[in-house]
């Protein structure tokens, strides 16, 4: 113990003053506990109970030590003073390389009056890094020396003397992580297992995956799915195999990105907590589908599926109706139930059907009293139990979490819940394998799991990327939920004493394994069980990652060199000499990439390139490529001195490449002398080191093939600046293999490619010097046939036969000269076309077209129509949402609108919301012109009361009426027309209430674009009824302002009691059984509370012959409301 000088606060600290002191702020400064007024500091045992209260973790106590230090001459003490050394738990006072978990308290008390005292308590894990831990603001100095203590005329410190008693409790660290700060914690080293990384809000997924992973039989079954021929991340089975194998071999937490991508999840799904039960079911269903036809096809049903019988058994006659169903998990009630066994009893509890709810037992027995219920026929080897911790609260009109205490055993006997004739050849005893926990409330929470990987081993806590040993208290007592023990949580106020705080962490899913099958379910997974192709692929990826890691570590020693060769230039089909961003592994036109040490010389580089090109190094010369002001990259001059290093050469070239690489062009000598030395047309080096530069310039050549509509590199040539452009014709003709002279009627046309957007015609009589041509410039040339032969060319192209050649003659694809083709290259776009989700034509697939962004709407439609082989006038296009990828509003046809304007309008906000490379298309049954004469009306068709609703988009002539809408609906929904099936009524609803009924002659144009229209057959009994005998009905929940569902009209009968009316309402709505019984009916009048109806009342007297302000309300829960997680489970 240490006390500070009188001008400071009192702290406990380590004797090493240089160490940083970790400070704990006490919860309170005032001594407000009632018993402190009567407890004496000399009563050490009683004081120990106060100073060392029970810990929430309930660790085993190793040793309690009490030591008192009498401090004298306080004001004369040095800055720090150390008390006498004492030992506790066998540990020395100064920690070295170990950890020690200690609960401790300090009591400062008057040496003459032990009733005057001040104490504080804390606990800490002492380590070498955190060996100095104590209190700050223990007590104010003026209260120690100047102010009389409460209820006394003494001060705490009298005559410069005071006693300090240390209460030290050393506790056992059973799990190795008690009060651990988790810094530098290694899950693999401490437990042998690794966790899963949380992508954002995927902790629920992590806990489920760990549970499935440690169900070894499930893991083995997943490994048996054949995926060798489909090693794609889009394959969820393969992604799950990869994840499981990485959990086996990895030394660090594993990511789930690949698996969620295989689910089709995007960022929105990653940050949405899904329903765990639904996710579990869909994931297991997906794996079961992939196992069909394989050796493991029965593994999952045998392991995870049981059988349950649903029955209705008559009480007074011998009649029973039952059906057997498979189940993959069981949902059990928690609210109002104490234990898991009680919840099973509640699950199989019988319901008696009697009175008005009797069971129809057929023509022989008619209506009978009966028992209705479920009973289990068998349970699976691995039983998944989902506890209903989240329930809808009708009073709060919201989903709520149930934190009630719910106990579950380590050993569970399920035999009492089996049918009498069920197979009992082996015990139905189950052992707890996993407990999945939710901590928090409905809107914000965290998921983790306690799992028992081995039959006789520990439970471990899997909390995302951390894995730790768990105590049995954590697995059971803490997971039961309910109130905290009052001895652990000390209430501060009267309200808290009456209402103990509830645990926010509790079990929501349990995994039990049948005891007799434990060995087979938890059988170890060996390397032989893992697919060989999976091991090989992941080993290769690991080796590649290691190589990349080494490459990154050594990156400062190397400089990438990108080399343009004659071969890459001949494959290049666009502007400039190459695309430096292209990948050499997939593009033959990409420059060759060499990873060279910075200290290697240019001579080393030349040798490397020459060897790669299978050339004599003496015949290879490299030219430095530089960025010109017009943003092109061209050779500037050859590298004559081969001795400088690559780094020096890169620095001298100004290092202008944005990808930090040396860019060079490779020239191969066409002539050599007798000694094999290269003879260069220009920049020829002599023995004396002098470089000879003549008037020859280096020009690169490209040829535009008008017949094939292609552009390609031909090579290079040296030519004098003084020559005229027309003098190049025989040189080019010979280079192309056409002879020394072009055939009669043909001529060459040449352009200079200055930059992609600037292609200039070269005049024949102009000299190259006057045309300002220099080293590295590009000349493009083509044959120009006369007009007569041009027509023959198009005819020849149309007869080539293949589809690509037929497309080439279309006006949107054919270019008469190279300049037009360059313009196409500048504006071309690859656009993805997806069929609109509502497009009804079958067989439509996504496709990608390369088109010019300068074409207009009609040309785009023609191009797409040609690809789909449909009439272009029957196509409609939609832009795509940039965030969701879903189609937006249709694009209006405008002749002056180009594709560029269509995809990138002059609206910044619009550009952010629209994809620039994607469109949706719809193949219409009519032309766009005809469509413009029609109005799209959305109608909901009711076919079975109000329980089955189908929505249709119906196109109706804008000049039409409701009767035309009905005709369109019957055709679209394939219904009988009104003459055969009966009259159809159409009404408009607003806020889930009937707004108005639309007559047959009501004009379509008057229908609001956003109106909700409902259509239904008029029941026979309502066909000729007086309109005044109807009442409008709607659904609401608790309050009429919270309307939901589809409203309807209902015919009232004079003198009919509501008991009879309800039977007709059940038939009218199509809602049956328990769902109908839960509905409460009320007469709703404006500005009045709902008047709930009883069976003896007569609704006709309440609502018949009245105005529209009287309606019938059906009060029941809105089942269409979103679940607690907000989003529907999405699994591709």
From TrEMBL:
A GO term from the CC aspect: cytosol
Catalysed reactions, semicolon-separated: Thiol-dependent hydrolysis of ester, thioester, amide, peptide and isopeptide bonds formed by the C-terminal Gly of ubiquitin (a 76-residue protein attached to proteins as an intracellular targeting signal)
Gene Ontology process terms (BP): protein deubiquitination; proteolysis; regulation of protein stability
Domain annotation USP: ranges: 194-515
SUPFAM superfamilies: Cysteine proteinases (SSF54001), TRAF domain-like (SSF49599)
Main location: nucleus
EC number of the protein: 3.4.19.12
InterPro entries in the cross-refs: Papain-like_cys_pep_sf, Peptidase_C19, Peptidase_C19_UCH, TRAF-like, USP, USP7_ICP0-binding_dom, USP_C, USP_CS
Keyword Transmembrane helix among UniProt keywords: no
Root EC class: hydrolase
Family per record: Belongs to the peptidase C19 family.
Protein name: ubiquitinyl hydrolase 1
Underlying gene: UBP15
